# Entry
Amino acid sequence: MRFLALGYLLLVAGCCGYSTRSLLPSHLKTVAVPPATNTTTQPGLAEALTVELTAAFTSDRTLHVTNAEAADLIVNTTVSSYSRTASSYTGDQVVSAYELSVSAQVQARDQTRDEEFYSGTASARVTYDPNAKTEEQAAADAVKKLASEVVRQVQIAW
# Structure
C-alpha cells in the first residue's frame, strides 16, 4: 500500500503544469530596454518606466539585460495614459482614497529573426490614501507594477 501511495504521489506531482523553464523561445537570451517615451502630460513617467522595466527584467533573470546592439529582443514602451480619480470619500465628502492608473503601449522586436515578437498594451493601477502617500509615491508604485506587467506579457507572448 505504501508503494501504491508513493507511486500515486509521484504521478500527480509529475503531471502538474508548473515548470521553472522559460516560456520564451530558446534563441531569446538577452533583452534591451531603450528609453521609454511619454505621450501623457504627467512628467517623469518615461524615465521611471525605463528604470523599473530594466530592474524588472534584471530581477526576473529570464533574459539578460544588455544594449540594443547585442540584444536578441528589444522592448520599446510608450506611456500612453495616466489618470487619478477619487475612489472613496469620508462622510464629509472628503476624498479618502484615489485610484491611479497608468498604461503603456509595448512593442517587442525579435532581433534574431527580424520580426515583431509582441505588441500590446499593459496597465497597472493602485489605490492610495492621500493622507498616507503622495501622488508621486503612488505613481512610482503604479509604474513599478506596470513594469512587472510588461515583463509578464512579454514572457507569455510566445
Observations:
- The chain has one domain: 25-156.
- DSSP finds three helices and six strands in the chain.
- The mean pLDDT is 90.
